[in-house]
Q: What sequence folds into this?
């Protein structure tokens, strides 16, 4: 089962992927806080003997924050 720390790391990976422009001359990126607000299960109950894939996306990007 996923814990809160793993879900927040997942949110951080999504945010980092969104803001990374892939250019070597761009300065290092800094993310202060990332969290997961909602998780929609497409099937329930989850089985422990099955691998699952998670997808995420940025729904809003402002000048200094994103959702």
A:
């Amino acid at each position: 089962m996923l814990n809160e720390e793993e879900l927040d790391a997942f949110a951080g990976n999504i945010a980092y992927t969104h803001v990374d422009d892939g250019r070597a001359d761009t300065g290092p990126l800094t993310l202060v806080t990332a969290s997961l607000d909602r998780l929609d299960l497409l099937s329930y109950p989850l089985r422990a003997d099955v691998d699952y894939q998670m997808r995420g996306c940025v729904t809003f990007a402002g000048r200094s924050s994103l959702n």
Summary: The chain has a mean pLDDT of 81. The radius of gyration is 15 Å.
